[in-house]
């Protein structure tokens, strides 16, 4: 495998980013109490909107902590590369979070950009041996169950894994249909883009629900959560969140378009 050659400037810049991430993690630890709410069970006394925010905060904090660990691992490889140790040992560490996880509007993109090295390991040693894309619908259940157990043998994590798989199925079906769909007019392209944004908003909502179940409320809190949101007070909040995710997805589309134009030039 070809090795990356890192300059002192590259290492210094990456190290500065890591120090800032570490500082931000410490700041979040001292100022935000998402994990305390989740672990103590105090979320049961809050509204579902508050619980939703706590769930997002818990997941965001965990992802940020993981990024700090990922980055220090890559930074150590970059430092050893300067001394040519990594070239001798054949070490090549990928960027474990090549894309901001808040800039992913579908499940496949999210999981490809989250812990990328582990994702590659799963693809190489589980997904492909299990049949690859030919048995994709079955493979995701096996792989996500393994990932849940790899984290910890806990019902909340298993429910997170199975909910994620459940939400994955319609996304894969819609993607297959979208790939076969040919846009022949500007209006058709507009409709397709709007439907894609709606699908992205639904996906983000599903991802947050799965994380909420897996990391905060557990299986026992699902009925309470759903029943509250289906009440008169909960529907406007649910609608507001969905519109927010829809607008966010459209913004992600524009970011992707800008990147494509930049690469073309």
UniProtKB/TrEMBL annotation:
<protein>
    <submittedName>
        <fullName>Putative membrane-bound O-acyltransferase C24H6.01c</fullName>
    </submittedName>
</protein>
<keyword id="KW-0472">Membrane</keyword>
<keyword id="KW-0812">Transmembrane</keyword>
<feature type="transmembrane region" description="Helical">
    <location>
        <begin position="20"/>
        <end position="43"/>
    </location>
</feature>
<dbReference type="InterPro" id="IPR004299">
    <property type="entry name" value="MBOAT_fam"/>
</dbReference>
<dbReference type="GO" id="GO:0016020">
    <property type="term" value="C:membrane"/>
</dbReference>
<keyword id="KW-0808">Transferase</keyword>
<keyword id="KW-0012">Acyltransferase</keyword>
<dbReference type="GO" id="GO:0016746">
    <property type="term" value="F:acyltransferase activity"/>
</dbReference>
<dbReference type="GO" id="GO:0019432">
    <property type="term" value="P:triglyceride biosynthetic process"/>
</dbReference>
<dbReference type="InterPro" id="IPR051085">
    <property type="entry name" value="MB_O-acyltransferase"/>
</dbReference>
<feature type="transmembrane region" description="Helical">
    <location>
        <begin position="195"/>
        <end position="217"/>
    </location>
</feature>
<dbReference type="Pfam" id="PF03062">
    <property type="entry name" value="MBOAT"/>
</dbReference>
<feature type="transmembrane region" description="Helical">
    <location>
        <begin position="237"/>
        <end position="255"/>
    </location>
</feature>
<keyword id="KW-1133">Transmembrane helix</keyword>
């Amino acid at each position: 495998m070809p090795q990356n050659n890192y300059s002192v400037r590259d290492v210094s810049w990456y190290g500065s980013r890591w120090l800032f991430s570490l500082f931000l993690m410490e700041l979040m630890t001292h100022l935000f109490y998402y994990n305390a709410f989740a672990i103590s069970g105090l979320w049961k006394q809050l509204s579902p909107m508050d619980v939703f925010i706590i769930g997002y905060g818990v997941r965001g904090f965990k992802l940020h902590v993981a990024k700090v660990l990922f980055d220090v691992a890559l930074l150590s490889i970059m430092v050893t590369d300067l001394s040519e140790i990594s070239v001798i040992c054949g070490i090549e560490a990928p960027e474990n979070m090549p894309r901001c996880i808040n800039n992913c509007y579908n499940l496949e993109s999210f999981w490809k950009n989250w812990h990328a090295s582990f994702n590659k390991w799963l693809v190489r040693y589980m997904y492909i041996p299990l049949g690859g894309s030919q048995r994709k619908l079955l493979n995701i259940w096996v792989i996500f169950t393994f990932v849940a157990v790899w984290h910890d043998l806990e019902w909340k994590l298993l429910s997170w894994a199975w909910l994620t798989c459940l939400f994955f199925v319609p996304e894969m079906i819609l993607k297959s249909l979208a790939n076969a769909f040919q846009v022949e007019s500007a209006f058709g392209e507009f409709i397709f883009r709007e439907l894609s944004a709606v699908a992205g908003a639904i996906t983000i909502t599903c991802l947050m629900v799965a994380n909420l179940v897996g990391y905060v409320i557990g299986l026992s809190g699902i009925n309470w959560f759903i029943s509250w949101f289906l009440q008169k007070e909960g529907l406007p909040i649910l609608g507001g969140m969905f519109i927010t995710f829809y607008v966010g997805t459209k913004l992600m589309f524009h970011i992707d378009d800008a990147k494509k134009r930049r690469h073309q030039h």
